[in-house]
Design a protein that fits this description.
heterodimer, A: mainly alpha, MetI-like fold, two-stranded antiparallel ribbon, 14 helices, about 0% strand, B: alpha+beta, 5-stranded mixed sheet, 15 helices, about 30% helix, transmembrane (chain A), membrane (chain A), cell membrane (chain A), ABC transporter permease (chain A)
Chain lengths: ~325, ~525
Amino acid sequence: MTNLKQPLVFLAQSVGLALAVVVLNFLLIQLAPGDPVSVIVGEMGGASEEVIAQMRAAYGLDKSVLEQLLIYVSKVAVGDLGYSYYHNSPVLQLIMQRLPATVLLALSALTLAVVLGTLVGVLSARKPHGLLSSFVTVVSLIGYAAPVFWTGLMLLLLFSAIWPIFPTSGMVQMRAPKGFMYYVDVAHHLVLPAVTLASIYIASYSRLSRTSMIDVLSQDYIRTARAKGLPEGKVVYKHGLRNGLIPVVTMVGLQFGQLFAGATLVETVFNWPGLGRLAFESILRRDYPTILGILLMTSILVMVANALTDLAYRLVDPRIRSKRA
Amino acid sequence: MRILAALTLALGLTTAIAPLPAYAGPDDGGSLVVASIGVARHFNGAIQSGVATALPSTQLFASPLQYTEDWTPEPYLAKSWDVSEDGLTVTLNLVDNAKFHDGVPLTSEDVKFSIETIKANHPFQTMLAPVSSVDTPDATTVVIHLEHPHPALLLAMSPALMPIIPKHVYGEGDIQTNPANMAPIGSGPFKFGEYVQGEYLRLDKNPDFFIEGLPYLDEIYIQSFADPNTLMLAFERGDVDMIPGLSSPRDTKRLSEMDGVTIDRETGEAIGAINWLAFNTKKPPLDNVLVRQAIAYAIDRDFITNTLLQGFASPDFGPIVPTSPLATDDVEKFDVDLEKAASLLDEAGMVPGADGSRFTLSVDLTQGNEEMGRNIAEYLRSQLKQVGITIELRATPDFPTWAQRVSTYDYDLTLDQVYNWGDPVIGVNRTYLTSNIRPGVIWSNTQQYSNPRVDELLLEAAKENDLEKRKALYAEFQQIVVSDVPIYFLNVVPVSTAHKSELGGVPSSIWGVYSPLSEVYWQ
């Protein structure tokens, strides 16, 4: 019974949340001055009143906000995210075109941050007051404190201009190679943006795993393991790490939303053709349907990420598995 | 039968010969990466203006005429043209070998359709407004009938303004949502290749281009950039071959110090962007012409162009860019004179208060515009303080916010950049005509300036086919507007092209690189 009820409750909650996201965002966007038509007209170098009125009517902007909201919600309910005024294309198509780039960037950065962060965290936890530990603390705090666009620009200057080993922008070269070399090209373009985005999170993970490991390593069962005469590596990585990882997993789930926010800036600096840059451009252009579509899509992604976190808990910690089942 | 065979043979031969490289000409082949900061909504320049669309649109579509760097029309799709004595009919004789990219021949019907579509849909309504009808006596002849003489018409036939679009593709349904806007079929030197939104547009060589031997390049990538700093790095690194519409003095200076880079600074005059300080002429105390003149006298234009803009932008003294054949420099220059400014303010009854300030004004800024916006506004603040005017900067977070304020007259002063678009009828009249005071419409007469004589002159000049008479009318217009100061003119916004020096044949037309890149080649 509980097995069936839980996913249903989760689903209902998610739908409610998505609806709230749609309505809130829709109303928030209306508060910003100007509308998409004013931007389109602006970039065209001005237009007559007739053309403007024609465009407003075509985009449904001549209706009341409430009417527009009802139309929008009813469309979203059947999976239609609307039509982008600015980009002249269905929003869903636009988002789907950009989503892979963002997912690639976000997941690479996240993986890098988690693996690297946890690794240095664990290493420094073994000698909490050692040199490595202090070094890690300082470096990761700098990464955490520096604004991400600044980090990005500095990396660009260092590794694209002064010592040009990485490309400056985009996801592929123009005149792009085909086949296997295409993936190599993408990976080459991915390095700087992923490192930039990861730099903010490495700090959190290393600090978190360090604290958590210090805590875990002082537990009785670790002493028992050592007393049994297990090699230190096995004690730390098998008995310690698995328990120490739980807060890290929580963090991954929590940070998923922030990751998209960070991606917006990184994508703009590195000209990465993802959702974040699309969001940024769409906000500046008041492209309501696109902004709303992206916000909805990212909130769904965050919900999915949270669900996955929940699953991950069960994998890492058998106690949760048995308790909840 | 024999004739037919000969004909087939001849046709076969021409098609066989055509794709061969021109013998004495530059090397064929290669690809070009052009950067674009703006995002094109789509690539159909018949219904969308702006440089982001014009760049691809002028490659994809051909137009009746082209313009040289000295404002002379040249044949393109029209091999010759004729304006009747009374100026009421313009006849175009089209080439007979132009084909659209789908193989369908281009005829007078397509030209008629394009003119009608542009007239009905293009944001620049004044461009073709006097066109009353278009006749097509045969497949290569187009006769345009006008309600009154319309000297701006020839310029309006430039690639950037009059792409000839195929009727059989765009003729059905609502043109605004026609899918071919995103994947156009034209008759220009390059055809649509691939578009990856947010990354690039690839254009491929049109092997059947009606001008034999052209284009030289195999492909053009128009790569979109979100951040100008990243674009500069990409260019310096050699990833990008050409930056069109370069206007920043700082970037121009930086690139001009690079080896192997050429910067064409005398190009794109028809775009004619002017950076100016606009006044809300209905809002006290700016409704008093003496106050506006006082502000004009208080500003040192030379300091702005020579020091702030480092000499990379030339000064502008009036509503028509100085490089236009219709511009005059016989206008009040408002050479800086702080005493005169102070006495004009006294005369206007604006005496300083106890704190030395006569009144406070705000200056609005467009977002992201540092060199021709914020820096100048900061300068105005300290400069105008010397004559007792307190300036507050009102920076807006983004364009729509600014446009909303200015178009609803919720401002005192604003810095702005407005384009001439070649002929005053297209890009100048809108700022000064009383009939164009339209609330909510940005880049209309948002100064709310009204002078019956100016209205008269502009309407008369729009119909005057005699160049000398037309120049005289515009000269009087420029003198009045400059003295009335609805706007204080600051500088011409450069539309330079930066490109690798190995690149030859970069157009130096008045439309700059917003014209066919068919003769561009790698040396």
